[in-house]
Amino acid sequence: MDIAQLRREYTKTRLSKKSVNQDPIEQFNLWINDAIKADCLDPTSMTISTVSKENTPSSRVVLLKGVENRQFIFYTNYNSRKGGHLSKNPNISALFFWPELERQVIIEGTVLKSSPEQSNAYFKTRPWKSRIGAIISPQSQPIESRNVIKKAFVLEAAKHIGGSIPRPGHWGGYQITPNRIEFWQGRSNRLHDRVLFNKNDDSTWDISRLAP
Ligand SMILES: Cc1cc2nc3c(=O)[nH]c(=O)nc-3n(C[C@H](O)[C@H](O)[C@H](O)COP(=O)(O)O)c2cc1C
C-alpha cells in the first residue's frame, strides 16, 4: 500500500475568530461535548507530551477526567516516566484529535498535582479492579513477565476483599493550567481554520487566526 496516497478532504464545517466562543474553556467544552454526541471513539483521550531533564520530548495517551476551575485534569502514576518528567519540568502539551469531526485541539500549559482530597475522591469512583491495578503496577518500570503483575494483582486483591481500598500515594491527578489553546477545524484543499487563544499576564486571552 502506498501510504503517501492516503488522504481525504475535510469539509464538515468552519471556524473563525467571530464564530468561536470568546472563552477558550467554553469553546473546549462545546467541542468535547460535540465529540461525545458524535460517538467519537474515546472522545476524552488526549496525547500528552512531557519533556525529560535532558530536554527530550515524549508522548502518550491519557484520559481527560474533568475540566474544573479552568484546569484540565488527568490521573496517572506519579512515579511513571511522565511523572518523572513533570516533577522536573511542569510544562506539558495535551492534544485531542477527533477525526470524525475533523477537529484538533492543542493545549499547552503547566501542571500541578491535584490535592490529595481531589485524587481520593476520584480514586473512590474507579472500578474495584482498576484501584487494585493502580496499587500494584510500577508503571513504566521493566517487568520480567505479565505473570509478575497478575500475581501481584491477586495478592493485593485478597487483602481488600470486603474492605475499602485507600488510594496509593504514588497515584493521583495532575491539573493542567493552560496558557495557549489552539482550535483546528479541517477545511477543503488543506486550507484549514486555526484559531489560537494566547493567555495574557492578566489572564485575558488574545485571539488570532493562524495560517493553515
Ligand atoms: C486510550 C488510552 C487511555 C489511557 N489512559 C491513561 C490514563 O488515564 N492514565 C495513565 O496513566 N495512562 C493511560 N494510558 C496509558 C498511557 O498511554 C501510558 O502507556 C502510561 O501512562 C505510561 O506512560 P509513561 O511510561 O510515558 O509514563 C492510556 C492509554 C490509552 C491508549
Question: What topology does this entry show?
Answer:
Blueprint: H1 24-37, E1 45-51, E2 57-68, E3 71-77, H2 81-88, E4 91-98, E5 103-113, H3 116-125, H4 128-136, H5 146-160, E6 171-185, E7 193-199, E8 205-210
Antiparallel strand pairs: 1-2, 1-4, 2-3, 3-6, 4-5, 5-6, 6-7, 7-8
Helix pairs in contact: 4-5
Flavin mononucleotide binds at residues 42, 45, 58, 60-63, 74-77, 80-82, 139-140.
What does this structure look like?
The chain starts with 23 loop residues before the first helix and ends with a strand. A 6-stranded antiparallel beta barrel has the order 1-2-3-6-5-4. It is globular and about 55 Å long. The longest helix has 15 residues. The chain has a single domain, classed as Pnp Oxidase, Chain A, CATH 2.30.110. The chain is α+β, with helices and mostly antiparallel strands and 212 residues long. The protein has 5 helices and 8 strands. The protein binds flavin mononucleotide. Flavin mononucleotide binds next to β2, β3 and α2. The site of flavin mononucleotide has 16 residues, from β2, β3 and α2.
Provide the descriptors you would attach to this structure in a database record.
212 residues; single chain; alpha+beta; Pnp Oxidase, Chain A; binds flavin mononucleotide; 5 helices
What's the short story on this structure?
With 212 residues, the chain is α+β, with helices and mostly antiparallel strands. The protein contains five helices and eight strands. It has a single domain, classed as Pnp Oxidase, Chain A.
